[in-house]
Amino acid sequence: MNLVPEKVGAWLSDTGPEGDVVISTRVRFARNIEDVPFPGRMKFSEAELVLDTVHWALEESGYLKEGKFFEPGMLGQDDGLYFVERHLASPDFIASRSPRGLFVSTDERLSVMINEEDHLRFQALAAGLDFATAFKLAADLDERLETQLEYAFSEEFGFLTACPTNLGTGMRASVFLHLPALVLTREIEKVLRGAYAVGLLVRGIYGEGSETRGNLFQISNQRTLGQSEAEIIEVLTSVSRQIIDYERKAREYLMHNLRVEIEDKVFRSLGILRGARIISSDEATNLLATVRFGVILGIINELKMSEVSQLLVLIRPANLQVIIGEKLTPAERDERRATFIRQKLVR
Amino acid sequence: MKICDLCGKREASLSVRQLDKEGRATELAICAECAKKRGFTSVEDLKKNAAEILAELKAKVGEQDETRVCPRCRLSYADFKKSGRLGCAECYRTFAELLAPLVRRLHGSVQHVGKGRQRGRKRAQERLELARLRAELEQAIQDEDYERAALLRDRLKRAEGEGAS
């Protein structure tokens, strides 16, 4: 694999705007090619044709120079999961059996899935709350691909997608939020209900159906039709700003009223991470998230926030295996994970 | 007791208003038997009939909805209801009026207002068309359908010419 396993993309190694609350911003587009059945209904030969055509279109648009193209043979279960854990591909994509391809830019800010649920699913990631950057990256790719490809489109329904939930703009915009103070003060339910009430979707950070780990949440638009791309982003930005505000107020409250308890929680988490000999990825995720909280609050000074954020991805099963360069059993993984984290955190 | 205006024998149970060519109304009192003979029905009967007809129609249309099939990808509406996924762009035209209420429920709208589609030369798409024509030509030769093969060969030549210009 050509990606640098120990380094997670620019969207995690930088600390973007409002980085104390918003880890990253994502903009994803779903597109299909006119005249070819959607991936769920196409023949093997048509899937190959789409793969070849999009590959060529990417090459013509100059994108292939800026990253790497992975074909099905290179996307086995483990390598596939590696991309899922880095938020560059979806679990459905990895599970699919039709000819498919994945393009990932060197800095991991752009990725394109070919023949997932739609012929094309591409996304841009930016550090912090930064829709301007993420949208521009994704929209530029969209425009360059559109000089090559005839998208399935209707005046009424907009861009046509396999599932009617993606119709219209085909755009799903989201923010990844770290909300430990709102969870600790039990205000989180109220906030999430509020987001839901204005038509936004709230999920755990690893997508649909995944429970929330480490107080990490993903908020995205539910509707894709009847609102322009700019309107969707506007709503998400304003709701994000409100949540950021709430979270910071809750942090202030905690530091003012429960400082010792918070310090205790943070240092215990760091203590376990620095001392453990066996650790599961779920436990590590929760502890690392608490340590990240400690860094944000200034309780821990010797670690950088981006360093801890990156670890959240690197310790996941498939990433850990790629870093170590071996296929491991779950028990071996828990042991090697503990060692890896110690090496990173003990100064 | 009113006597039927038509038979002049039985007791009238219906009152029917008739309009002549000049638009003048005449009121007729008719008995049940004559009404049946002449094809007059009461409002109650009419209401009952309408409900039956509608239900029958609905069942028929519903059946048609389920078995309606997209001409391009052969997906039926029943397939869509099972999987929640449509098969191709043509499905949206085939099932347009069936999808509209669903789309409205999902998005609160059935009218796209975002970015439009760009027009222009699509070179990758041209390549895809050529590849498809070549595959079809190969298939036609394999099937020994030479008439079709000749047709495809001409189309391919034209397409290649356009691609090169």
Descriptive report:
The complex is a heterodimer of chains A (347) and B (165). With 347 residues, chain A is an alpha+beta fold. Chain A is built from 13 helices and ten strands. In chain A, the strands form two sheets. In chain A, strands 2-3-4-5-1-8-10-9 form an eight-stranded antiparallel β-sheet. Chain A has a two-stranded antiparallel ribbon with strand order 6-7. In chain A, α3 (77-85) packs across α12 and α12 (317-324) crosses α13. The longest helix of chain A has 29 residues, at 229-257. The radius of gyration of chain A is 21 Å and the shape is globular. By secondary structure, chain B is mainly α. In chain B, 58% of the residues lie in helices and 7% in strands. Chain B is built from seven helices and two strands, in the order ββααααααα. Chain B has helices at residues 32-38, 43-67, 77-83, 89-94, 96-107, 123-142, 146-164; strands at 14-19, 25-30. In chain B, α6 packs antiparallel against α7 (146-164). The longest helix of chain B has 25 residues, at 43-67. The model of chain B has no long low-confidence stretch (mean pLDDT 82).
Short description:
The complex is a heterodimer of chains A (about 350) and B (about 160). Chain A has about 350 residues and is an alpha+beta fold. Chain A has 13 helices and ten strands.
Question: What is the tally of beta strands of chain A?
Answer: 10
Strand residues, percent of chain A: 15-25%
Could you tell me which chain pair has the largest interface and how many residues each side has? A-B, 51 and 40 residues
Radius of gyration of chain B: 31 Å
